[in-house]
Amino acid sequence: MEHEIKTPIRQLPRRIPPHQREIIDEQLKESVANGRVEESQSPWRSRVVLVRRHDVSYRICIDYRKLNLCT
Questions:
Q1: What is the pLDDT along the chain (71 residues), one digit of tens a residue?
Q2: What's the pTM?
C-alpha cells in the first residue's frame, strides 16, 4: 500500500502597488467586520488579486490555480 501526503501550497504574495494595498486592506476589514471571512492560521496560502468591475470599483479574488493543479 502506498500513501502520499502532499505538502501545503504556499504561494508568495504578489507585489501590489500601495494604492491597491489600501483597497485590499479596506475590503478585508469590511469583510471581517461583516462576518463574511475570518482570520486563519492555515499553512495553505493563495494569492490575492484585485479585479476591476465594470463600474471601475475593485473586488478581491483569490488565485487558486496552483492549488487546483494539485487536486
A1: 776 656 678 888 889 999 999 999 999 999 999 999 998 888 888 899 999 999 999 999 999 888 888 77
A2: 0.73
Length of the chain: 71
| 23-32, long-range: CB < 8 A, 24+ apart | 23/50, 23/58, 24/48, 24/50, 24/60, 27/58, 27/59, 27/60, 28/60, 31/60
Q: Which residue has the cell 496560502?
A: 45
**Residue 64 in grid coordinates:** 487558486
d(CA 57, CA 71): 32
Cell 479574488 sits at which residue? 61
